[in-house]
Amino acid sequence: MEILRVPTSIASYKLPIPINVIGSWVAIATASSDSSEYYLDGLQGYIFNEEFQTITVESLSVSDISLQYLPKLDDDYSITIKTAAQSRLDIVAQVWNSGTHRTVLLGAITLTGQAQRDYMDTEEYKNATDAKENVLSILENLDIVVFEDDFTYVRPYSNPETNASTASEIAAYSANEEIARAVIDSVIPEGFYYKRKVLHFTGTGSDYLPVWDDVKKVVSVYENNKLVEDREFELTSDKTAIVEKSTDNINRAESAPLVLPAASSDSLDPQFVYRGFGKTWDYVITVEYGYPTIPSDIVRATEMLVHDLECGKLDYYKRFISSYNTDQYRIQFDKGLFEGTGNIIVDKILSKYAKSITKIGVL
Q1: What confidence score (pLDDT) does residue 300 get?
Q2: Under DSSP, is residue 86 helix (H, G, I), strand (E, B) or coil?
Q3: Which of 3-12, 151-160, 343-352 has the highest mean pLDDT?
Q4: N or C: more exposed end of the chain, with fewer CB within 10 A?
Q5: In this structure, which long-range contacts are made by residues 34-39, counting pairs with CB atoms below 8 Å and at least 24 apart in sequence?
């Protein structure tokens, strides 16, 4: 399932079939890029009345989940809805009040003074207290998964809500935009998204960690499996490496320093304090990369492809006929038929984003 992330509205995940939850529940989305978990929605679905020692457990139908708490990133997510062990509530439930909620009675007796103290010593009160703790523990332990699914949260190249007005027009434009975006991504495989990913490095002893991706932000750094909290990191001004942030006058080391072993007769113990990334140390770095905003020419290119789809201009193959023989209907096509998007203007726009080298390797 694909859900568009547009700036003019708050997207939501609509469940294929509404589900009924009793008591507390929570909806959590887990990002595939770095396994981060995001709390989306939920409810403490019970009320405890201290005076009458009663617990009211609510029943609710869940049909859609708001995605407003997800980060502004293009990513794949798995969504999970968890609730309390609803079947176990039947053990202590004594009264059904209505179809929307049920009340669990726990020693509903109001006493004062000596009578209250006498009642607190009775077996009935102890049973009521045990029942209350039992019910509360069940209601607060959200360990039962009642729904699981996956979806893609993605920013469109052209906003359907600004290019269409009615709900049906927006839905039609969204479908055509998805096709147009897929066509553009077939030419520019990395696309024009803003994503998060996890990079794995082995330190070289220098103050630089070179990066190949178009990194825009360093989110977190783990050094030898421990989160670094006493230092901050940033990108170099040319966006080619990650360095430790510093406001002091600093001469960064481009390579590991040469440390000579000390002889037994030396009176000094030469040491070097690393400012950057220790040699052979393991680093796991989460970064954000790509396009924070869609380039304006890509937006225009998408709009042109959507227009072609809306107007039925799919006979672009006719533009690549290099020869035609009516004698026996012999038609010869130019090789350009199998390249590009079918729109020569769009192809020209995308040409400046094409990369001849997409992965570092040995030539």
Answers
A1: 96
A2: helix
A3: 151-160
A4: C
A5: 34/196, 34/197, 34/198, 34/219, 34/286, 38/69, 38/70, 38/71, 39/69
Q: Please state the domain extents for the chain.
A: 2-153, 159-192+297-351, 194-257+270-290
The per-residue pLDDT for 235 is 93
User: What is the DSSP pairing of strand 2-4 with strand 144-154?
Assistant: parallel
Number of H helices, E strands in the chain: 7, 19
Residues 6+ apart with CB under 8 A from 263: none
Share above pLDDT 70 across residues of the chain, in percent, rounded to a whole number: 69
Q: What pLDDT is stored for residue 24 in this prediction?
A: 82
Q: What is the mean pLDDT of residues 239-243?
A: 91
pTM of the full predicted structure?
0.75
Tokens, residue 229: 């909290």
Handedness of CA 352, 358, 362, 363 (dihedral sign): negative
∠70-14-101 over CA atoms, to 5°? 100
Instruction: Please list, in sequence order, all residues whose beta carbon lies within 8 angstroms of the beta carbon of residue 80, skipping any fewer than 6 positions away.
Output: 27, 28, 29, 30, 145, 147, 148
* Phi, psi dihedral angles at 72 (to 5 degrees): -80, 65
| pLDDT mean over 132-142 | 72
Picking from 285, 279, 281, the residue whose alpha carbon sits closest to that of residue 235 is 285
Exposure letters 19-31 (e unless 16+ CB within 10 A, then b)? eebbbbbbbbbeb
Q: Give the pLDDT confidence score for residue 357 in this predicted structure.
A: 65
CB-based contacts of 101: which residues, under 8 Å, 6+ apart?
56, 57, 58, 59
* Residue 230 pLDDT > 70: yes
The torsion angle over the Cα atoms of residues 171, 174, 180 and 186, rounded to 10 degrees, is -120
d(CA 172, CA 159) in angstroms, rounded, equals: 12
Helix (H, G, I), strand (E, B) or coil at 124: helix
- Distance between CA atoms of residues 194 and 72, nearest Å: 8
For 145-171, write each residue's pLDDT tens digit. Answer: 989 999 999 999 999 999 998 999 999
